[in-house]
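Residues determine shape. Take a concrete instance:
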Amino acid sequence: MTQRAVERWDEVPLDKVTEMVSRKEVDGGQLSLVQLYLKRGAQVPLHRHEGDQMVYVLEGALLCSAGGRTVTVSEGEVWSVPSGVRHQAVALDDTFQLVIRSER
Protein backbone atom coordinates (compact mmCIF):
# COMPACT_ATOMS: atom_id res chain seq x y z
CA MET A 1 0.00 0.00 0.00
CA THR A 2 1.28 3.48 -0.85
CA GLN A 3 2.04 5.55 2.24
CA ARG A 4 0.13 8.79 2.67
CA ALA A 5 0.02 11.28 5.52
CA VAL A 6 -3.66 10.49 6.17
CA GLU A 7 -5.53 7.24 5.53
CA ARG A 8 -9.30 6.76 5.73
CA TRP A 9 -10.38 3.33 7.02
CA ASP A 10 -13.39 3.34 4.71
CA GLU A 11 -10.98 3.67 1.74
CA VAL A 12 -8.60 0.90 2.87
CA PRO A 13 -9.52 -2.34 1.06
CA LEU A 14 -10.87 -5.21 3.14
CA ASP A 15 -8.71 -8.31 2.79
CA LYS A 16 -10.81 -11.44 3.33
CA VAL A 17 -8.09 -13.81 4.53
CA THR A 18 -10.51 -16.73 5.14
CA GLU A 19 -14.23 -17.15 5.73
CA MET A 20 -13.46 -16.50 9.43
CA VAL A 21 -10.81 -13.76 9.22
CA SER A 22 -10.71 -10.39 7.47
CA ARG A 23 -8.57 -7.30 7.92
CA LYS A 24 -7.65 -3.80 6.81
CA GLU A 25 -4.04 -2.68 7.09
CA VAL A 26 -2.19 0.61 6.92
CA ASP A 27 1.58 0.24 6.56
CA GLY A 28 3.51 3.18 7.97
CA GLY A 29 6.99 1.83 7.27
CA GLN A 30 8.27 1.11 10.79
CA LEU A 31 4.73 0.47 12.15
CA SER A 32 1.63 -1.21 10.81
CA LEU A 33 -1.92 -0.66 12.05
CA VAL A 34 -4.41 -3.44 11.35
CA GLN A 35 -8.16 -3.66 11.92
CA LEU A 36 -8.74 -7.38 12.40
CA TYR A 37 -12.13 -9.09 12.36
CA LEU A 38 -12.38 -12.68 13.64
CA LYS A 39 -15.57 -14.71 13.68
CA ARG A 40 -16.19 -16.83 16.76
CA GLY A 41 -14.02 -19.94 16.58
CA ALA A 42 -11.48 -18.42 14.18
CA GLN A 43 -7.92 -19.50 14.90
CA VAL A 44 -4.76 -17.51 14.32
CA PRO A 45 -2.11 -20.23 14.02
CA LEU A 46 1.15 -20.31 15.95
CA HIS A 47 3.57 -17.78 14.42
CA ARG A 48 6.04 -15.04 15.33
CA HIS A 49 7.07 -11.59 14.14
CA GLU A 50 10.44 -9.86 14.07
CA GLY A 51 8.85 -6.84 15.75
CA ASP A 52 6.73 -6.12 18.81
CA GLN A 53 2.95 -6.39 18.56
CA MET A 54 0.06 -5.00 20.61
CA VAL A 55 -3.53 -6.23 20.23
CA TYR A 56 -6.33 -3.96 21.49
CA VAL A 57 -9.65 -5.84 21.66
CA LEU A 58 -12.46 -3.40 20.87
CA GLU A 59 -15.25 -6.01 20.81
CA GLY A 60 -15.38 -9.69 21.80
CA ALA A 61 -12.73 -11.83 23.45
CA LEU A 62 -9.69 -13.88 22.49
CA LEU A 63 -7.91 -16.84 24.07
CA CYS A 64 -4.25 -15.96 23.51
CA SER A 65 -1.08 -17.97 24.04
CA ALA A 66 2.47 -16.66 23.97
CA GLY A 67 5.69 -17.95 25.47
CA GLY A 68 3.97 -20.83 27.28
CA ARG A 69 1.35 -18.59 28.92
CA THR A 70 -2.36 -18.51 28.01
CA VAL A 71 -4.65 -15.58 28.84
CA THR A 72 -8.12 -14.38 27.91
CA VAL A 73 -8.09 -10.90 26.42
CA SER A 74 -11.48 -9.18 26.52
CA GLU A 75 -13.05 -5.97 25.24
CA GLY A 76 -11.06 -2.95 26.44
CA GLU A 77 -7.87 -4.94 27.11
CA VAL A 78 -4.49 -4.87 25.35
CA TRP A 79 -2.25 -7.91 24.82
CA SER A 80 1.44 -7.26 24.20
CA VAL A 81 3.65 -9.76 22.36
CA PRO A 82 7.41 -9.11 22.32
CA SER A 83 9.46 -9.52 19.16
CA GLY A 84 10.28 -13.12 18.24
CA VAL A 85 7.84 -14.76 20.69
CA ARG A 86 5.69 -17.50 19.16
CA HIS A 87 2.00 -16.79 19.74
CA GLN A 88 -1.49 -17.82 18.66
CA ALA A 89 -5.11 -16.90 19.36
CA VAL A 90 -8.65 -18.25 19.15
CA ALA A 91 -11.71 -15.99 18.94
CA LEU A 92 -14.08 -16.80 21.82
CA ASP A 93 -16.67 -14.43 20.30
CA ASP A 94 -16.97 -12.44 17.10
CA THR A 95 -14.03 -10.12 17.66
CA PHE A 96 -12.95 -6.72 16.38
CA GLN A 97 -9.45 -5.58 17.28
CA LEU A 98 -6.73 -3.11 16.42
CA VAL A 99 -3.24 -4.53 16.05
CA ILE A 100 -0.08 -2.42 16.10
CA ARG A 101 3.09 -4.09 14.81
CA SER A 102 6.58 -2.67 14.75
CA GLU A 103 8.96 -3.68 11.98
CA ARG A 104 12.56 -4.61 12.68
Observations:
- Residues 39 and 94 are 4 Å apart (CA to CA).
- The chain has one domain: 15-102.
- The two ends are 18 Å apart (CA to CA).
